[in-house]
Task: inverse folding
């Protein structure tokens, strides 16, 4: 299955995050598709734990410079890029001083969830969409991994519904057993700025409630773990999207 344009959007990827199922699987899938002759690109957040020096990240000036309005505030979008170590595969990092400079992923040093995790996810989702458009690169497949990426299909089918840029793009969602962490109660208000309403997750917003909602906005759902936790399994079964059980990197081409 060569000559496809495949975009992986993920919150984790080896070697930038080690010893995680998601990070390992995304790494293997991206390399497999890249090695099979496809045009593969990866987008992920530039979390503060990712060393710019070690992984040779550098800012892409022509892509940076946009502002994204989150919670009625302008937030500058910074795009950094690196080649996957030892490979000719480009990884793009969504960055912002306010949201991603901190060294922790989702919790402060006392173990309390960051109050702006919702804003960070919205910024990441919109940042990916806007950057892909600025690249003038239309993916055939967008493969989403991790709770932050689950906001992308929601935005594409609501906020960007009249934008024809992605009209022929198919969306694949891999669902993983991630920690379910509550999001700030102002999530409904913030998404309301972008005219997004009516989501079940807005009543009790959390990481996995958005993953559950996103299942209604994608073409194919793949199990990222062989066995999903009860709430995810229930949402998976209820979804009208095409479904696939767990697949390893060698088998994922069957979905595309």
Result:
């Amino acid at each position: 299955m060569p000559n496809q344009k495949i975009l992986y959007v993920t919150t984790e990827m080896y070697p930038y995050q080690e010893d995680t199922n998601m990070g390992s699987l995304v790494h293997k899938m991206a390399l497999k598709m890249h090695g099979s002759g496809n045009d593969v690109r990866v987008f992920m957040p530039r979390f503060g734990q990712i060393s710019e020096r070690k992984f040779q990240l550098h800012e892409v000036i022509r892509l940076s410079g946009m502002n994204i309005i989150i919670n009625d505030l302008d937030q500058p979008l910074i795009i950094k890029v690196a080649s996957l170590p030892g490979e000719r595969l480009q990884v793009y990092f969504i960055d912002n001083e306010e949201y991603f400079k901190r060294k922790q992923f989702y919790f402060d040093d006392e173990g309390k969830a960051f109050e702006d995790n919702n804003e960070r996810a919205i910024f990441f989702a919109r940042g990916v969409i806007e950057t892909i458009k600025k690249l003038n690169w239309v993916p055939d497949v967008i493969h989403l991994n991790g709770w932050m990426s689950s906001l992308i299909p929601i935005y594409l089918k609501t906020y960007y519904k009249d934008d024809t840029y992605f009209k022929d793009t198919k969306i694949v969602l891999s669902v993983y057993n991630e920690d379910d962490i509550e999001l700030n109660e102002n999530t409904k208000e913030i998404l309301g700025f972008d005219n997004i309403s009516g989501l079940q997750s807005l009543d009790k917003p959390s990481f996995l409630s958005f993953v559950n909602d996103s299942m209604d906005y994608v073409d194919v759902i793949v199990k990222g773990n062989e066995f999903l936790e009860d709430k995810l399994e229930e949402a998976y079964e209820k979804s009208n999207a095409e479904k696939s059980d767990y697949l390893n990197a060698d088998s994922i081409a069957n979905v595309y």
Summary: The CA atoms of residues 80 and 93 lie 5 Å apart.
